[in-house]
Amino acid sequence: MKVCVGLSGGVDSSVAALLLKQQGYDVFAMFMQNWHNTEGTLHGDCEWEEDKFVAELVARKIGIPFYFVDLSGEYRKRVVDYMFEEYSRGRTPNPDVMCNREIKFDSFLAKARELGADMVATGHYCRKDEFTAPDGTLRYRLLEGIDPGKDQSYFLCQLSQEQLSRALFPIGGMLKSEVRAIAAQADLPSADKKDSQGICFVGKVDLPVFLQQQLKSVPGDVVEVYDAWYSASAKYAADNAMLQSFGSKPSALTDEQLLELSAPPDYSGIQFSTETYRSGKHHIKKTRYKDNPWGKIIGTHEGAQFYTNGQRKGLSIGGHARPTFVIATDIALNRVYVGEGEDHKGLWRRVLRIAPDEIHWMRPELSMATGSKLRCRVRIRYRQELQGAVLVMRANGMFVVFDSPQRSITPGQFAAFYAIADPADPYDAPELFGSGVIQQ
Question: Which of 90, 184, 203, 332 is an S-S bond match for 198, by CB 3.0 to 4.6 Å?
Answer without folding.
Answer: 203
